[in-house]
Amino acid sequence: IVWLWKPLIATSLIVAVSLFVVMVNYSEKPYILLQPVFGQTFSSHWMFSKQPYKAFKPHLGYVSIPKQEPLKLHCELCSIVSSSGQMLGQGAGPQIDRSPCIWRMNNAPTRGFEHDVGRQTTLRVVSHTSVPLLLQKPQYFFGQGNDTIYVVWGPLRNMRKDGKGIVYNMLRQAAENYPHARIYVTTEDRMNYCDMVFKKETGKDRIQSGSYLSTGWFTLILAMDMCKEIHIYGMINDTYCKTEGYRKVPYHYYEAGSRDECAEYLLHESAPYGGHRFITEKSVFAKWAKTHAIKFFNPPWQLS
Ligand SMILES: *[C@@H]1O[C@H](CO)[C@@H](O)[C@H](O)[C@H]1NC(C)=O
Ligand SMILES: *[C@@H]1O[C@H](CO)[C@@H](O)[C@H](O)[C@H]1NC(C)=O
To answer: Which residues span the membrane (predicted)?
Structure first.
């Protein structure tokens, strides 16, 4: 009897091992696929898409709710509209609306600001902290007829999918109430990747330095993968706030009378913890603009 079992055990073992190998291969597939998206190697130009441009490549770093499908997107020209008070009084709206893809951040409104920020919205990158603001006007943001893509970023504790992620739960509810809404969340791997990019570019560990990445940071990283050309409106450069006679504007164009943008930036830059390193981030953006088709408008950046 015993000898009869031996081949059976051996066979089961072989089957189990093969299954395991198949599974490992399968689960590693995303990383192989992600390679071209994330850049070939971590050499000096590691981030930039020198490789041939593929239309509508699925991006596994962003998955839909509830289906968990990767984000498929491609655009020849993305205009990114910042939420800064710099948008005010520049009349950039018509120019923005002429670009094929228009990206905004968080709950930045268009209504009432059309002349300066435009009317169209293709995609919004949304911080986990802004999700409750969107949900105050769910019909406006997620209602039928609105095909804006929402890409939400946030830390695992709020975005976990096991029922304990408070923001993820809100989004799942919204997706249930508005089945046509196109809501995507940034995966844990992608969040770690964005942290890693910060460390790579600044030499500082994001967590140890007590800072949070900004929505602008996540927006630019996504745009560099999805847009052939990027136009950024209303973003100041890293020396703007040290420039004599700079234009004082509200931090957000839709929050008149709030703290001045530069005051807010300086506060964040020096906060021992919980701040956004906006100024540091801008110096990294300037570096990226040297190897990627990124242009800055209102105010313009002189990139050498
Ligand atoms: C969709 O959103 C835009 C602003 O992003 C808004 O102007 C428009 O009214 C919305 N459409 C619907 C049907 O809610
Ligand atoms: C940064 O902004 C200031 C103020 O707009 C400008 O004077 C300066 O030339 C800019 N620097 C670069 C590198 O664009």
So the answer is: 7-26
